[in-house]
TrEMBL record:
Signal peptide: none annotated. This is MinD/ParA family protein. GO terms for cellular component: cytoplasmic side of plasma membrane; cytosol. InterPro entries: AAA_dom, P-loop_NTPase, ParA/MinD_ATPase. Residues 178-320 form the AAA domain. GO terms for molecular function: ATP binding; ATP hydrolysis activity. It comes from the Bacteria. GO terms for biological process: negative regulation of cell division. It holds the Pfam family AAA_31. Residues 91-111 are annotated as: Disordered.
Amino acid sequence: MDPSDESLEGRDIVVTESGSINVVVDLPPAPVAAPPADEAAVAIDDVVVDPSRPVHTQTASVTIVTAHPVVEAPLPPVRTVLPKQVEVEVSSGWRQPSRRSRRSGEVAEVPESSAMLTADRLLVPGRFGRPAPEGGARLLLYKATFGLANLGDSPKVRARKELDKRIQRPLDGGARFVPVLTRKGGVGKTTVSALLGMALADQRDDRIVAIDANPDRGTLSERVARQTDATVRDVVQRAASITGYTDFSTLVSRDVTRLDVLASDTDPQLSEAFNENDYNVVADLASRYYSIVLTDCGTGIVHSVMRPTLRRADSIVIVSGGSVDEARLASETLTWLEANGYGELVRNAVIALNTATQGTSLVNVEEIEAHFLSRVRQVVRIPYDPRLAAGAAIEYHKLRPATMHAARVLAALVVEGLPATK
């Protein structure tokens, strides 16, 4: 190596004892890169410590800022407690929120049945306008003005629709039993049973059956167009093979109003054999397939069949004629019931006062009504109708308007006296 080489200027050349040559070069200080911004934010300044002085430690909080935002865990949902609204108590025993409560989010305490989805609840008020009036000059005016002039239904039509609504009252749960009874024959008990059943079946969507439990050869099946010769005895004998409504329906006659009628035995000797156990078999089967079970009872109030009939009864209908002795026997029937532990049935009973019996024209019927109203819930007069007096099959829709109205009022009162749930 030539020491005179210009490329070695400014460099110290040292020759070691071993003959090796070391070149000492002064290099400029390396550039110091600026720290990243996130590191500079958390850097701690250098502090000169004097060893001759005591060291006093001091803590300080340092805020660390990260480059990425902190993801917080989601908070649990907050349950908003709405103010308690006014509740409407229904007859089924549980409480249902009002329409205003439902709009604010409140729900019923138990699952609702499909019967709760009524048009009054679901349809928006005023959205479809006022319904067209039914018949008469009001309907003509409505059509002539293309719906601009709508006077609504007449008072008579509104009263009829209100009565329909009373008869159609929903009944949840098991079957309701309604015996029709009296202690005197010939006052129209079977006719009243048929009228009541037809009025119920004509308006209600559920099934109605009338059972002739008269041990003295009842005639209830003759008040409808008979379609079968089967009787209560056949139901008892075939009870084990009856597994559905189709099987049961083959043993009854159905009226045009959809009333099913189960006839009694035609042989008086067999009728006497129809006892308490037999009635329970028939009643148990009927309760599976029908909502309302009417029982046309005989005049023997102490007959063995009367005991299970009254035990199952949810309400009763007492039939009375318009004469003095007929009214007195009907009142004695109420007395017997009260004395034998059926006082509640008496207070909830409805009297069907048949004014078509002999002697009615000579009796103050208002006084008879006043007497019964002091003991029972309501009294309904059944007017004279030649179609009923004939004793043949009843054509319900051909009855006189007053007779049909009386049957419908009786049906409404009976339904109102039944428990809403069972």
